Amino acid sequence: MKFMVFIKATADSEAGRLPEREHIESMITFNEQLAKDGILLAAEGLRPSSKGTRLRFDGGRTTVIDGPFAETKELIAGFWIVQGKSHEEVVERFMRLTLERGEVIEIREFFEFEDFESLLTPEQRARTERVTLEDLA
Fold it and tell me: What are the boundaries of each domain within the chain?
């Protein structure tokens, strides 16, 4: 099972303030353990929303909205992609993350191909498998 773990933006992350050395050290240590345990697939921080763009799709019309975006609680400052045996296992691992400034993380499971398999026509299934295999090559 694959999971995405989001770390929500804060006023500091949206202002572009980088974390203190101690925070960076604890994050590196945490990520090293995830990698050592073989579950870390990716981990990245994101620049503030002032450097971002949203696209809104509505009735065939696309609107481009440049950041910054107002609602900090809805923004993401970074993420991990991990694999685990269960949702509970991933929750347990991330409870060990050393955060002390009111940060919030969110853990969400990825859909697997099999979740959609019954909805796909044979042609759609073949096309989806082909794209996935090509992306991995």
Answer: 2-110
